[in-house]
Design brief:
mainly alpha
């Protein structure tokens, strides 16, 4: 594993590639209309209730999560985690860009919806693997889960599930209250919750080899 400035530059470039792949995954899941991944469900619903775009709503949620991490950890908060802010800005901008690129894509049937949904899940899973391999800074969602594990005696897997369920419940509640129907949370959300991690796990293996050789 290479260190130094060049190594860090390579890792941040890999992170940016991962964020781009994830952003397109989110855009495909939106186009599928079967529900987004748990982490994207709340920003998507907020974008339906406000003038905010999905990307801007994503940035707003990430800023809120960063603030919650600071309040939760206080003196134990590591200032390096503030790097989550520029990462959130980049990811939000990439999400809006991806939605714009795919504006002409539409699903004309239920099977086609699932095709787009599966593409979205695969892309998000690959993007997550790139983020993990880069090993420089996490998105605020993962940062929040790590903060919970640091503040309380929680296992990461349990905290992650609880965090995702909370986001889905909030998104569902807002959707039902203000839209009178369920938006952003459907069978695709369940599929994403189950499969994104599995996809990332499979991609992590070749990415580990890549990291040893080039990072």
């Amino acid at each position: 594993m290479k260190t130094g400035v060049l190594g860090q530059v390579k890792r941040y470039l890999l992170l940016c590639v991962g964020l781009t792949i994830m952003a397109f995954g989110v855009a495909f899941s939106i186009k599928a209309g079967l529900g987004t991944s748990p982490i994207s469900s709340l920003p998507y619903v907020i974008s339906l209730l406000t003038p905010l775009t999905v990307g801007t709503a994503t940035i707003a949620m990430h800023v809120a999560l960063i603030c919650l991490q600071i309040l939760l950890l206080r003196r134990r908060y590591d200032p390096i985690q503030l790097m989550q802010l520029p990462v959130a800005l980049i990811f939000g901008a990439l999400t809006d860009f991806s939605v714009w690129v795919l504006q002409g894509v539409s699903a004309t049937s239920y099977p086609m919806q699932w095709v787009l949904c599966v593409i979205g899940i695969l892309l998000v899973g690959v993007g997550v693997s790139f983020e993990v391999t880069a090993n420089v800074v996490t998105l605020a969602g993962e940062g929040m889960v790590l903060a919970l594990c640091k503040a309380f005696p929680l296992k990461f897997a349990n905290a992650k599930v609880g965090f995702d369920v909370t986001l889905v419940l909030i998104a569902s509640t807002l959707s039902l209250l203000f839209l009178q129907q369920l938006e952003g949370v459907r069978e695709g959300t369940v599929a994403a919750a189950i499969c994104v991690g599995l996809v990332a796990k499979q991609v992590n293996r070749p990415m580990a080899v890549f990291a040893q050789r080039y990072l």
